[in-house]
Amino acid sequence: MEEEEELKAILREAFGDSSSDSDGESSHHRQVQGLVNDSTDEVVKPHPIFGETDIWEPITEIKGLWICRDFLSTDQQASLVSALEKEGYLAEASHNQAMRFGDLPSWALELSYYIRGNILLSGYFSESMDLMTSGNSKETRLFPPELLWREPLFNQLIVNIYQPGEGICAHVDLMRFEDGIAIISLESSCVMHFSPADAEISHVEDVKKEAKIPVLLTPGSVVLMWGEARYLWKHEINRKPGFQKWEGQEINQKRRISVTLRRLCQTK
Ligand SMILES: O=C(O)CCC(=O)C(=O)O
Ligand SMILES: [Fe+2]
């Protein structure tokens, strides 16, 4: 029971108090309310809120790298693409990139709430391991609480639009961004490769300098990158012919859109 009270408080914190919210009819509020059985006031194990499943998979070779493949349902992906379209992000035909700092548009705030909520819920309802608590070793944690509870969770976004054949070179995200980055994928699937960042190679145990770890980014998925994954590994997407293979099959490439959410380091 105590845990249930705690969970309710956390959900209220993550999503706002729906009873006192003028926007009480918005879908995520309704869904969150659905976690508490009105007649018994008991917390029920939820239907996944944001997609078919809300399972977070660790990429076991890389500490701090997680993916939730069904983060956004097909409908939610379509709504996000049309929000981007309406705001002019998709206007250019060629590869382009649009950045926003500070006050994020409402769809990006909603994505942030979804990410926080989804992390919290999977931690609470995971039977095999508690993904959130400090009792867990740092390496197996989904996302450290100090990152999860910062306000705002994210204050910068990049929308990348890639035409078939276009990708992004191997890089570590700039140090002006804090730890804890989320990447949402839309439209075409693609393989993102992770390789050790040379300068830091000695810090990554048991990993060969040439290691290249492929991760399949499916539409509607979200990737979380923190700690070693964020600082000690480069990530890249090479969509030149021959590089986008998954389980021996070349991926049929279409336009791909990604939304990257980050937080700028505070300036003194
Ligand atoms: O498009 C992606 O999935 C990754 C984008 C990225 O790595 C970046 O903008 O730093
Ligand atoms: Fe990046």
Report on the structure:
The chain is of the alpha+beta class. It has 2 domains: 1-47, no CATH class; 51-262, Alpha-ketoglutarate-dependent dioxygenase AlkB-like (Jelly Rolls), CATH 2.60.120.590. It has helices at residues 2-15, 27-33, 74-86, 106-125, 145-148, 228-231, and strands at 56-58, 65-68, 96-101, 156-162, 168-171, 181-187, 190-196, 213-217, 222-225, 233-237, 245-246, 249-250, 256-262. It has a 7-stranded antiparallel β-sheet. Helix 1 packs antiparallel against helix 4 (106-125). The longest helix is centred in the middle third of the chain and has 20 residues, at 106-125. Residues 158, 160, 168, 173, 183, 235, 258, 260 line the site of 2-oxoglutaric acid.
Small-molecule binders: 2-oxoglutaric acid, fe (ii) ion
* Estimated structural class: alpha+beta
The arrangement of helices and strands along the chain is: HHEEHEHHEEEEEEHEEEE
Gross CATH architecture of the largest domain? Sandwich
Number of helices: 6
CATH fold label of the largest domain = Jelly Rolls
Question: Main β-sheet: number of strands, strand sense, barrel status?
Answer: 7 strands, antiparallel
Approximate strand percentage: 15-25%
Shape from CA axes?
globular
CATH superfamily of the largest domain: Alpha-ketoglutarate-dependent dioxygenase AlkB-like
**The CATH class of the largest domain:** Mainly Beta
Secondary structure: helix percent: 10-25%
Rg over CA atoms, rounded to whole Å, is: 19 Å
Number of strands: 13
Number of domains: 2
Name the poorly predicted regions.
17-37, 126-132
